């Protein structure tokens, strides 16, 4: 069974940093596109970042570009580094994965659409507060 488990969330002051991790129990990890989404209270789940199978390309939501960084490693982990956190970054952060989608840099691939991803973690809470 394929599962994703997030960790690293917590309470942080504005301007602070956190590193989220997603451990994937996926035998063929390298064949999955990995992404992060988030959902704030009362809002829809929204795209944050995605990384290609080989890790060579990344894409970000405009709201986090330049502040967040997605990565992946050979230990079947995906990470999301959150820097210069703002109050509006408060949300539950979810790791997502999909084996069947085309690469995010292929035109027409809606990597920002949560329905593109077939596997989801349980989420980890990030709270930014002074």
With helices defined by DSSP (H or I, 4 residues minimum), what is the helix count?
0
What does the largest sheet look like? Answer: 7 strands, mixed
Radius of gyration: 14 Å
Order of helix and strand elements from N to C terminus: EEEEEEEEEEE
Task: Briefly note the structural class of the backbone.
Answer: mainly beta
How would you characterize the overall build of this protein?
- This protein starts with a strand and ends with a strand.
- Helices cover about 0% and strands about 45% of the residues.
- β7 and β8 (about 75-80) form a beta hairpin.
- With about 130 residues, the chain is mostly beta strands.
- The strands form 2 sheets. Strands 2, 4, 5, 6, 9, 10 and 11 form a 7-stranded mixed β-sheet that branches.
- The protein is globular.
Give a brief description:
This protein is an all-beta fold and 130 residues long. It has strands at 4-7, 10-12, 18-24, 33-39, 46-51, 58-60, 68-73, 77-82, 91-98, 119-120, 124-128.
Please give a handful of descriptors for the protein shown:
130 residues; mainly beta; 0% helix; globular
Give the helices and strands, then pairings.
Layout: E1 4-7, E2 10-12, E3 18-24, E4 33-39, E5 46-51, E6 58-60, E7 68-73, E8 77-82, E9 91-98, E10 119-120, E11 124-128
Parallel strand pairs: 2-11
Antiparallel strand pairs: 1-3, 3-8, 4-5, 4-9, 5-6, 7-8, 9-10, 9-11
């Amino acid at each position: 069974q394929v599962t994703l488990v997030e960790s690293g969330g917590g309470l942080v002051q504005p301007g602070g940093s956190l590193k989220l991790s997603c451990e994937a129990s996926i035998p063929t990890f390298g064949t999955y596109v990995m992404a992060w989404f988030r959902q704030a209270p009362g809002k829809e789940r929204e795209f944050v970042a995605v990384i290609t199978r080989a890790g060579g390309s990344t894409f970000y939501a405009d709201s986090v570009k330049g502040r967040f960084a997605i990565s992946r490693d050979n230990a079947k982990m995906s990470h999301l580094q959150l820097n210069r956190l703002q109050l509006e970054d408060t949300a539950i952060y979810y790791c997502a994965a999909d084996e069947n989608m085309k690469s995010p840099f292929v035109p027409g691939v809606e990597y920002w659409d949560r329905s593109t991803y077939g596997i989801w973690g349980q989420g980890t809470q990030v709270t930014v507060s002074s």
